[in-house]
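Why run this: before we spend reagent on co-expression, it is cheaper to look at a predicted model of the complex and decide which construct boundaries make sense. The entries below are exactly what would go into the expression plan.
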Amino acid sequence: MYAERAHGMTASAVRSLFAVANRPEVVSLAGGMPNISDLPLDVIGGLVSDLIKDHGTQALQYGSGQGELMIREQICEVMAEEQIHGHPDDVVITHGSQQGLDLLTRIFCDPGDVILAEAPSYVGALGTFAAYQAEVVHVAMDEHGLNPQALRQALLTLRAAGKRVKFLYTIPNFNNPAGLTQPLERRKEILAIADELDLLIVEDNPYGLLTIDGQDPLPAMRSLDDTHVVYLGSFSKTFAPGLRVGWVLAPHGVREKLVLAQESATLAPSVFSQFVVSTYLAHWDWRAQLDTFRAMYRERRDAMLRGLTEHMPPGSTWTHPTGGFFVWLTLPEGLDSQAMLPRAVSARVAYTPGTAFYADGMGSRNIRLSYCFPPPERIIEGTRRLGEVINNERDINETFGLKSFTHTPRIHPGPGPDLR
Amino acid sequence: MYAERAHGMTASAVRSLFAVANRPEVVSLAGGMPNISDLPLDVIGGLVSDLIKDHGTQALQYGSGQGELMIREQICEVMAEEQIHGHPDDVVITHGSQQGLDLLTRIFCDPGDVILAEAPSYVGALGTFAAYQAEVVHVAMDEHGLNPQALRQALLTLRAAGKRVKFLYTIPNFNNPAGLTQPLERRKEILAIADELDLLIVEDNPYGLLTIDGQDPLPAMRSLDDTHVVYLGSFSKTFAPGLRVGWVLAPHGVREKLVLAQESATLAPSVFSQFVVSTYLAHWDWRAQLDTFRAMYRERRDAMLRGLTEHMPPGSTWTHPTGGFFVWLTLPEGLDSQAMLPRAVSARVAYTPGTAFYADGMGSRNIRLSYCFPPPERIIEGTRRLGEVINNERDINETFGLKSFTHTPRIHPGPGPDLR
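The model came back. Tokens follow.
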């Protein structure tokens, strides 16, 4: 009755667990929701009220499949913060950058086509790739993000085996879930390989402007190469995710296909949401607002790192992000983060198990911890509880040698509401 | 480089023509944009301002992939107007009902699967079905809409040939583009076939509440059968298309797959748009607003029918809709509506050629005329200009016997912004 691609669409077992994790007594370090409580709601309310009263018949009407010109121009200004010189003609508005991923996979991938992706990669991207029956091959990362030698090797091996590799998917800034960033030199090395071996790169950049150590945003890969890079942007982390406004900046031919795909998927993105973002960008100092967000996330990131230093048992390691939302924790040997999750939730702390971020079952010793949403003191309390859970887990393992913990079924990499 | 499905994604030749048709001197009877100038913009502006100021951190945040419970409950009230007793658990919010079509096709159709569709059918649905490489087989209509005997025959023939028929796609009320409505008895006949032959029906109902002759809305097919019918609803024609809020009411198993498909496509529908619709439904008399819209569209429908009676040459026929947006015109024999379109646009009137609404190249003698957007006097002027164009076309044909007119390339059935 259903299509082949729908057979993999099953709700994962962690969902019911996350329903519990959303109770107020649980410290959730699992989600990727931005903390938007610093937004000037009174100002935005006034702006949107004026928008509806003065331009309602336009703002509430159907619009272009590509998106409205005005906001595409403003998006080019936003992208200039990362040294991208884009043209509004090459921007396509999407329903969040998740839809950008969906439409790109739709136009590029037949079943069995290969997508290269960082290991680990954003769970929502893996879910989309799976929905189009594309095969994900992971490429190793080191402390500077995606490893160029591993990329070259993977690409050559796959091509030699007759596989059609459609693109590389990467998050160069504050990668979700690992929190790692490619330095400028690393970006150039990857782009040189893309140029040499004619590889398309999908650069997903939801967090790039959320630098939190006072540094300037790095030049986007797209700012260094406008032929091999398709760039995905989003207002979900820098303004408001509830509006679902993202975009794709793509070479002309790709842009044309994306617009047609958007029309068959949804007719057009929401004009109203676009106008709300547009009036916010035009009438509020969004650069100063970014500084507010940066300071707020810095405090939380610092709390997370302090909490981990205090409470993690020996043998644990973790990344030290300089922006974005996430820390990637590696547990002491022998522990399984997915098996441990029910006990963590009982101890009133939640996280996302590492296996969610791999298409190939890896990541069982890893945990993604997010510091974006809870207040600093809750983050520290969360790490305290987590430390206890890990210590108990080690005691149990040592006492009973319970190896069965490492053989629990893997999470299906679908982008549940708490996995984004 | 691109996926197989992307090869058919090419911009149709009528697009550039429609760009011209959007000039103010052209009377466009081509689009399907609702006239929303009667909306209480001041009231809506105030409501949305309060929404942002009082509930902004929730309204601007990520939400559930299925959509917010509050609006799903209100949608059940809206559906009760057509005698549907739905449960909020079975409602999935979509980015317009176009996305409902996209997600349904995604979960049901592998390449080569068959979808049965009325002849003619909504161009945007045909575009979506083509994007999933599904095969559309048209089923004839008569003056009461989809013909049950033709449906049974088509289904049996296809199954005997080993084809997998996934569902029937139908618009029972004021069909786009033909303006025809299935009476209650007809709905029951179609549902009896669905029951007997185990056929799923996708009931698309954007116009059902826009009855314009004082009649009550008919019971939806879904109100008569909750196992074989998946129902698509939309606020695009009854409130505002720029918000992109539609929904699917589906049996439990289908609903579950739809939510997972939604999450991989977009993570979640826009919480903000849902809250805007929700506050409008809660604080404005939307039933009285529907009456305002009904009176407004009645005046325009009347103008259209009067204009056609006055200005169409002998040999033309057209439908007499009792609601919705569209009249379906059949030209005198020998004329080709697509070939004639450039000359119509030169004469400052635009329409959508009938071929757009068929997957099989039929419809060359037909035209979809929409009366939803221009004011009544412009509608009448549009029919006057169209009458002249048709008369000139007949003269040319009779003088020169230009049969080549009937062999122009067909429009690709993609849902362009002016074809919806």
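The radius of gyration of chain A is 21 Å. The longest helix of chain A spans residues 286-311. Bring this page to Monday's planning discussion.
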